[in-house]
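Hi all, long-time lurker, first post. I run a small reading group and we've been trying to get comfortable going from sequence to structure in the token notation. Rather than ask abstract questions, I figured I'd post a concrete chain and ask someone more experienced to write out its structure so we can walk through it together at our next meeting. Sequence below, copied exactly:
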Amino acid sequence: MSGMEGRWALVTGATSGFGEAIARRLAAEGCRLAITGRRVDRLERVAAEIRSERKVDVRTLRFDVRDRAAVEAALAGERDLLDRVEVLVNNAGLALALEPLQSGDPVDWDQMIDTNVKGLLYVTRAVLPGMVARGRGHVVQIGSVAGHQVYAGGAVYSATKYAVRAISDAMRYDVLGSGVRVTNIEPGLADTEFGVVRFKGDRARADAVYQGLTPLRAEDVADAVAWAVTRPAHVNVQSMLLMPTDQASPHAVHRRKP
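-- Answer (accepted) --
Happy to help. Here is the structure in token form:
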């Protein structure tokens, strides 16, 4: 028994990848769930499967975290949830393209900044006051090794993940003394839809990133989240840099020959 039974967790971007795996892992810990996403068919499928497998309550909230009005409206309509949610996982995020800054697409930049930074802020702003008022809660950000080291073609994505780290660090000052914890989980290479999204559907290019090495799985990140949120109340895991054994940094990976 993890001590999470019956507690409410809100996971953004839960239709695939890290978000889906985190939702399933928290359900396995006994959490009740509110999961968000833009793709209603996937959202409802994930919810139905978790309800069937784990026999826990699952609510679905369809909105795009980039849309502040939609975030506020959706969560304002879940007043009872905001009164009870104890774990917020800000997972929704993406990377787009690998172009150098001088030839990058500002549309891509806007989408990354609006999702990875502003979307995280919008959701946190709606959920955090209740946690502070109740004197307990846990905000978990899904950051990246790109929030520690930049790489060619990753200027804007890295900037967003540096921002996630800065927001997390500053939030700990803001909630100090309230009993609310803040954790930043920062994965390296992980084989999810991330690469396919980054390369705009080019699966061959996405798969080539992981060729010859063993990347993280979504379940590895979900395990890290579950470990962090199940520590005793006096323990805050401030950050966790989670890397494949085959990766030392964004610039150094070990690839086995075919």
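A couple of things your group might point at:
The longest strand covers residues 180-187.
The mean pLDDT is 96.
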